[in-house]
Each structure stands twice: as structure tokens, then as C-alpha cells.
Amino acid sequence: MKKIFSCFFLLIILQSFSQEKNSNYLQLDYFYGNILPKRGSKHLVTGHPQGFLFSWNKRSLGNKAWQQDFNYPDIGFTFGYQDFKNRSLGELYSAHAHYNFYFFNRASQNKLMFSMGFGLGYNTKPYDRLTNNKNVALGSHINLSTYFKLYYQRENLIENVGLQFGFNFLHASNASLKAPNKGINSYGVNLGLNYNLDAKKEVFIKSIDTINYKEPLHLNLALLTGANEADFINTGIHPFLVVSLFADKRINRKSALQLGTELHLHNYLKDHIRFKYIFDGDVTRTDFPDWKRVSIFAGHELFINKLSIITQIGYYLYAPAILNESIYQRVGVKTYFGKSFFASVGIKVHIINAESLEFGIGYRF
């Protein structure tokens, strides 16, 4: 499963960076902050996490229409390090692909920016029943890693060196691939320097796109799969399948709306339901509630370059053995192959509790 995700992540990176050669710059940020306390893992909040993010960025100048639509964003790679300042949590090393988006006038010297990065992280001290049973946040060495930054940036203050500062949010979890997995969220402030690798002046292209992106309704069929484990430790990792049938409506170059229904077949629920009744004291029960679930959902698809970002919210119509909230959310990325086939990777959560990391393939009729 980890190898599959790594290959898909590499494919996304290769597609994102397949564009014209533009100017580049580096960023180095130091951050200092706090861990957001979560129920069941508040004992892990003992210090102020700190670390750094080192980024390589490629500017876009408007060679493609999507770059002009999003105010000429940057794309790049980020390497991160975070010390959680807790002996049970250890440290996190991470690698991300990221986008930097600019607010207001792109050509201004004073820039307000938003950056988001998605990738993988390596935790040095995951849960171990004998040697580290306090780390209920991260149950495996390999985790998904995400960061967001909102910051001010000024370039070329002293020759090629500039300054940036702002706020950041960092998240790590294994999406319930292995228990325990409460995940860990940290937030704080960042201060850093940037360095321009190219001295040439930026010239932004502005053109008029006459393509009509509006389309009629399309029907989509997608199969989402992966593996996960119940919240009860050592109950075993089980495969799952989600069958998703939905209609989408492309409304412009940037956006499409979705509405559909899903059948959720998560095998881990069989163990989870049985263990839940045992822990509640009902050890003789054999007629457990049905583990299958059916839902409806609405979603939005944001098109950026050759990728799209999907956000969905769903509600279970049929779920006799609901163990979480009746509402779920999904966030992921999708890439298309030709006009009809697509692949995706996403995380399904119940409010803030991740249930599964989903790999999908689909067909758009």
C-alpha cells in the first residue's frame, strides 16, 4: 500500500512540473508553535514543537491559461523537519509537493501568499506496545504529511535575499492504515529567508481564453480501495471497497460540481463492531448490526494545471452500526487520462478522525 501511494505521488509530481522553464527561488523557514490537543492524546502536549521547511520554487509566468486564472502561482518541493518536543512523539521528517498562491497584485514587491503542500513523512518514534505505548497519535513510521502557510514575502531586500514571515499549520497521520492513529496537528508562526536563483525580471503573460468550458451533466463511476485497521490495536489490517456513482457538471475552467451516492464496504468494521460490544460488556451477543453503509454526497472539483482538488461532504442514509458521526468528508487529488478515465487519491474523515486513505480509478461517461 505504501509503495502504491509513493508511485501515485511521484506521478502527480511529474505531471505538475511538466511545463516551461521559468525562474526559480529558494525559501528557508523556521517555525515555532503548539500542538492542538485531541481527546485521548492530550498527554502528548508537553512542549512547543519547532522545526524548519526548506523549499525550492518554480515561478509561473502565464504560459498556460490556468496559471493566469490563479494569479501566476509557484510550484515546487519542500523538505520539512519537526521536533515535537515530546519523548514519545519523537521527530518527523517530511517531503512535499506544493503550490504557492499569490493574493492581490502578483507583480508587487510586497506579497501576501498562501502555500499548501502534500506528501509523506517519517516519524522516528511510532507506537510500540512495549517500548512506546504512549504515542497513540502515530502508529507507523510512514505517514501522510500536509502543511499550510499564510505569510507575507518580500524579495530582493539585499541583492537576491528576501524575507518572509507568517503562520503555518502542519498535520501528520497514517489515515488509519495502522492503529493507533489519532494523528497530530501543530500550528505556529514562521520566519525565514528567500533567495532568488535568477536575476532576470519577471514578465507576466496575459491573454484571453475563448474556450467554453461549460459542459452538460456527465455520469461517473469510481472504485475506491485501500486498507485500514479498527481503532482497537492489533485487530488486523483489512481491505475495503467504496463504489461511487455520481453526476458532475463543469461550470467553468476552474470548477465542477458533483452529486452522487456511495456504497461503503469497510471490512475492518466487522472487528470494530464485535470488539465494541465486548468492551461494553455484552460478551454473549452474536447478532451484530450490519457493517455496510450507503450514503449520498455533494462535492466540488477545483482544476489546477493537470490536477484537480476534490472536496466532498457526505451523509449516511444507511449505517446500522455507526461508530463515528453520520457526516463524513473527503479531500483528495485527481488526474485525468484522456477524456474519460481518471485516477485519484484522497482521505476520508469523520470531522477530524481519519477513516481511510483511498486510491481510486474511474470512468466519466
What is the radius of gyration computed over CA atoms, rounded to a whole number of angstroms?
A: 22 Å
Distance between the termini: 29 Å
The biggest beta sheet reads: 8 strands, antiparallel, barrel
**Structural domain tally:** 2
Question: Number of DSSP strands?
Answer: 16
Strand content: over 45%
> Could you state the order of secondary-structure elements as H and E?
HEEHEEEEEEEEEHEEEEE
- Give the rounded overall mean pLDDT: 87
Shape: flat
Report strand order across the widest sheet: 1-2-3-4-5-6-7-8
Q: Helix coverage percent of residues?
A: under 10%
Q: And the CATH topology of the largest domain?
A: Porin
Low-confidence stretches: 1-20
The class by helix and strand makeup works out as: mainly beta
Output the number of helix runs.
3
CATH architecture of the largest domain: Beta Barrel
CATH class of the largest domain: Mainly Beta
